[in-house]
Amino acid sequence: MSTFKDLGLPKWLCETLAGVKITKPTNIQAGTIPQILKGKSCIGGAKTGSGKTISFAAPMLAKWAEDPCGIYGVILTPTRELAMQIAEQFSAMGSNVNLKTALIIGGQSMIEQSNMLKNNPDFVIATPGRLAHIIEEHPDDVKGLKRVKFIVLDEADRLLTESFTEHLGYCLKSLPDGKKRQTLLFTATVTDAVRSLKDKNENVFVYELDKIDDVLIPERLNLSYILTPYLVKEAILHHLLTIGDYKESTVMIFVNRSETCELIKRILKDLNVRVTSLHSEMPQSERTNSLHRFRAGAARVLVSTDLGGRGLDIPSVELVINYDIPRDPDDFIHRVGRTARAGRQGDALSFVTPNDLDRLLAIEDRIGRKMNEYEKVTDNEIIKDSLKVTFAAKVDARMEMDKENFGERKQKLREKMAERAGNTVANGKVSKIKPKSKSKSGSKK
């Protein structure tokens, strides 16, 4: 087993890593750090929990320490929570060398963030949407981006999808040409879009521990499912968390929509489960506090949309529940990767309604494994212990959410974004704004 010193990292950085009990490189770190230090761009593919952040952070910090000049690197990632986690790791690794980082994410003051960029921090960790908006609104404050030496796309498979195309393109246009910087892409699933970077640049090396068609779910992760009618999902969930096998476990519950996330959190809270939530309609301060509470054990259950499905490192998670089956099998891989990390055992349990059968089969085909049916919950137990109380809690939660106009903020944001794009939103539908016709008096002769 090599050491970080063997990989070419400087003594100060090896000592910093040792200070946080990181002494032996993982496979992805050993395979990528030496090549990045040699000046090569990189595509790094390894399953979640394998230490990808240090794979790009360590060589970037090593090169920065040799010649710290302006904004040295930009790290882009799809979610605010992952950006915050990466920023914390950079701060910890640079604690002894006066490293300056800027966290550029939504939910915080754009003016303050723009001023941070104007002062040329050493590294910028950002979500593409917020960075693109600052570039558009405050172009004079981001001139330092033109001297960047590194660009990192973390969770690159997600960033290279249509939902990020516009903002990502805006960010990349403000950076140096690809030949004048190193580009590092890291992901758990190396898709064709990620791999295409290799075709565009000969100075790119690919280090892929788990090829996309290989098994991505470790054997120590137990996969099972519960066949359930849609109307009793809440009751089964309550039984599992309060009476069944997992009444003491640390649990992440994944749902597909923010409304479902908020509803489940309120139901469980009303039934005396220590629960918190994570979804896009929460203010950033609440999202941050929610993760802190879960990590600290103040809440043992976290209900989350796919905001919490990628990259987040919460080692204590013992069970992942897919309350809703994800539409994309790769999202299932990321979700269940929140447990069975760093050599630990873990369980993943999926609620399957009659409408979910095709999705379940697609997931099994993608991961190359069959799930076992979980048979420890009986209809009699659900009716006796959970059905009545969960129904009452659900009615109360719905009434509270209606009173608070839950979802109103999201609708306003949609209208604002549509207006920026030259569209209108009416009854949930987007339509183009017709351009105003010019009056004759105002027309050019």
TrEMBL record:
The keyword S-adenosyl-L-methionine belongs to this UniProt entry's keyword annotation: no
User: A GO biological process this protein is involved in?
Assistant: rRNA processing
Which species does the entry assign this protein to?
Answer: Pichia kluyveri
**Which compartments does it reside in?**
Nucleus
Q: Can you quote a single GO CC term?
A: cytosol
Task: Please state every residue range assigned to the domain named DEAD-box RNA helicase Q.
Answer: 2-30
Where is it chiefly localized?
A: nucleus
Which intervals carry biased composition (Basic and acidic residues)?
Answer: 404-419
Provide the alphabetized UniProt keywords.
ATP-binding, Helicase, Hydrolase, Nucleotide-binding, Nucleus, Ribosome biogenesis, RNA-binding, rRNA processing
The question of whether ATP-binding is a record keyword is answered with yes
Kindly give the InterPro entries that the UniProt entry links to this protein. Answer: DEAD/DEAH_box_helicase_dom, DEAD_box_RNA_helicase, Helicase_ATP-bd, Helicase_C-like, P-loop_NTPase, RNA-helicase_DEAD-box_CS, RNA_helicase_DEAD_Q_motif
UniProt-recorded name of the protein: ATP-dependent RNA helicase
